[in-house]
């Protein structure tokens, strides 16, 4: 099983880089995942998006509608796409499980 090294700790990820254990996520892990995905720095706005996605997923066991993320965070209506041009990378950096085929399709079509 692949791992990433975060502060002298090994974190398990699947073959595509999604966290195996949702609970192993923290901001340090997010930064390591973002670096691995080539996303650069996780600014406050980016981290707010990731945290909202995680909180939503914890509550509803579902990916939030992308536009709802921005509205709830009082950011521009396209904040998710501005901060994470590929929303699947945001999902991955947020430490959420690999999305289903249906979620992949919705995200790829910006719905």
TrEMBL record:
**Gene from which this protein is expressed:** tusE
Q: Which Gene3D superfamilies match?
A: 3.30.1420.10, DsrC-like protein, C-terminal domain
Is Glycosyltransferase among the key words of this record? no
The cross-references to InterPro entries, in alphabetical order and at most eight, read: DsrC-like_C, DsrC-like_dom_sf, DsrC-like_N, DsrC/TusE
Q: What is this protein called?
A: TusE/DsrC/DsvC family sulfur relay protein
Any one Gene Ontology cellular component term annotated for this protein: cytoplasm
Drop me one GO molecular function for this one: sulfur carrier activity
Q: Which UniProt keywords apply?
A: Cytoplasm
Look up and give the organism this protein is from: Candidatus Abyssobacteria bacterium SURF_17
The record's subcellular location field reads: Cytoplasm
- Spell out the Pfam families in the cross-references: DsrC
Please state which protein family the record places this protein in.
Belongs to the DsrC/TusE family.
GO terms for biological process, alphabetical: tRNA wobble position uridine thiolation
Which coarse location class describes where this protein primarily resides?
cytoplasm
